[in-house]
Amino acid sequence: MQPPSEPDGERAGIGRLAATIERLRRQVQEAQQAADGRALIELARGILIERLRCGPTQAARQLAALAEEAGVSPLELAADLINQAARDRLAEVAEDVLADAVPAETRSPAVRLRAAEHGMVHAPDTQAVAVSLLEHALGPLGAAAVAVWVAGPDASLRLAGYAGFSAEEARRWHYVPPGVTTAARRALTERRTVWFDSLRQAGPPTIGHRQLSGGRVTVPAGTGGRVLGVLEIGWPDDLEPQSPQIRRQVEALAELVAHTIEAPSGQQGAAAGDGYAELVDLADGLHDPALVLTPHLDGEGHLVDFRVSHANGPFLDPAGRPRGEVVGALLLETYPLLAGDGGIYEKVQHVYATGEPFRADRMALTTLVDQVPLSVVMRLSLSRQGGGVLVVWAILDETSRLARLLQHAQRLGRIGGFEEDAVLGEITWNQQLFEFYGLERSAAPIPIDRLAEHAHPDDVPEVGRFLRTLLHHRRSASVSFRLRRSDGISRHIRVVAEPVFDDHATLLAIRGVYQDISAQHWTEVALAATQDQLVQSEQQAAERNRLALQLQHAIMPPSRGPMDAFDLQIAVRYRPAEKEHLVGGDWYDAIVLPSKQILLSVGDVAGHGIEAATGMVVLRNALRGLAVTGAGPAQLMTWLNLVAHQMIDNFTATAICALYNPGTRVLRWARAGHLPPILIRDDRAAELPMIGGILLGAVSEADFEEGRIELRREDTLLMYTDGLIERTDRTLEDSQRQLLVSASRHAATLDARLDHLLAHNRSDTDDDTCLIGIGLR
């Protein structure tokens, strides 16, 4: 038998090593469980020693005998004895758990919960608490991970312990700033247990939500009405609705976690001692009324009220009671109406529980004065400082509200007020005036009679007239000038002032206001410049439109008399746009070529104005020159497309080019995106068959098809631009059908037919219109 190859040997060695690690892991786990079990049994023996007044050996025998008699293991009996002696939350939960409320396991719920408690209480830190919690209590419930969050004084969250999550994920989520919405944050701010059936469907971001996207629950962990942290539990799969027993187990474990959470650094002893003294010192240093509230707990450690532990010097009771009557009393006993839904007491509870501060500029406070409700409006600030709540309020009476309103109005209107006492010589400025002059608040105000020293030299005469009217003639006056500050900044200021007299016409004071009108001034300057530019632009546009109209009329007069060429009679009509700025690029042409063929064309350049008019001239003249070569209509369109694409930027047009041979009476034609000609034969109008042809200038190379028709005597051919029929209230197809009906009407002459078409097919787009009529005699 040959020895295994080297790779096979390595795999075999790795397998043996893995098996050894797994065996050691099981032994460690069994040893830990045995140690937990021995601790519970020893605790139960202690209970029996105390109750039976016996020694340790007799207590151990009694425990074994009772377990055998009850048909349970000594460990399960020990857990039951501990529950009966403790009568705590874990005992209540263990008694309430049904046999089918948890998955089948080797340990009973009572043993499991007490083992978890023992592991958490004796854990060296919060990290060990999380590990013990997952191993003893949450793993049997199917949970795969657990996180313990500690709430900071500013409602932030710090990851203090975790199990089931990777170290890298824990580093990413080691701190959650205030205001960031996470699963744990909801439990903290809402102060209730929050269940998520599936994170992948509607869960907020949280630790491990990408790898462990099943069910999740977050439970506030707190004591005495204060949320110290949040217990977060994750499942690998979606959660079915949990029974009330399981929900109570989770909440009981969170309460146990609250007793084991490490206090955040800097928070130890904050509720009393030096921390409380610092909070009192903080309240005494405020100018507004302030109270220091500390939690008042019942015998079971539940928050039932807050005690007014301190009131600072400026504190004024809304009911008029002295400070000594308020300090030391319970908050709800002193102000019972605070307990209303959504009232101040609820805000105090929330701030104390979560650490989130609360601010309100206007909030109603109702107190009882001789059993009569008295409501006042106040400005309120609540913040948690260590183990207490600092309440700062300022009652807003009518005078203070009006003063604040005036202050905001002055700030928004950039208005600064002043008063100069003529008797005492004192000058009073508000904050805005110091900002206008660029001075510190501690600087001396500048008298009104020195205003000219701070004005622009060009504005000094106007300021001088203002001062003479105000100070010498003692009449109200106003002036606008440029205020020059020491930092070189100039502001446009308007000053309005008036003298104040007593009943004996003695001058008492000069009062007035400064208003910063810089923004208004520069707006007016910009508006004037814009108006000048607009007038100039309008003049340029009018001149361009006039030139375009002159160019258009010079090449294509609005009407031309009939032209006879061989056996053809040709008549044209051109109707320009009514508005000059809509002068377009429509054109027509009818000439006899050296080859004795007749060139007929119409076209429409996109756009309006001088660009469209000049583009029309280029295409019309180019087509004339190209037609001398003797090429057919399709070839002429190909060349004309190159002219439009290469010689003129951003230029497109539609066109029809036709060549009539008098000898054969054959008309050949091509189109470039234009409407086809109309043939009127025997008083029946119909469009010529549509042939292919793209817009001129759209692409560099294009092929155009060529159509042919042999004209008969009394036939009439119409070529036109879309300005004849285009309307906004109907489709182009409807307008074309209407044109065919109108063209079928009998007319005595070709001119009469064209005039009829112009009169009865008027568009509403105010566009140019070209119309050519060709009649074969």
Automatic annotation (TrEMBL):
**UniProt cross-references to InterPro entries, sorted A to Z:** ANTAR, Bact_Sigma-Reg, GAF-like_dom_sf, PAC, PAS, PAS-assoc_C, PAS-like_dom_sf, PAS_fold_3
Name under which the protein is recorded: Serine phosphatase RsbU (Regulator of sigma subunit)
Q: Where is the ANTAR domain?
A: 21-82
What keyword terms does UniProt attach to this protein? Hydrolase, Transcription, Transcription regulation
Domain PAC: residue ranges:
477-529
Query: Coiled-coil regions in this chain?
Result: none
Q: Which SUPFAM superfamilies match?
A: GAF domain-like, PP2C-like, PYP-like sensor domain (PAS domain)
Q: Which Pfam families match?
A: ANTAR (PF03861), PAS_3 (PF08447), SpoIIE (PF07228)
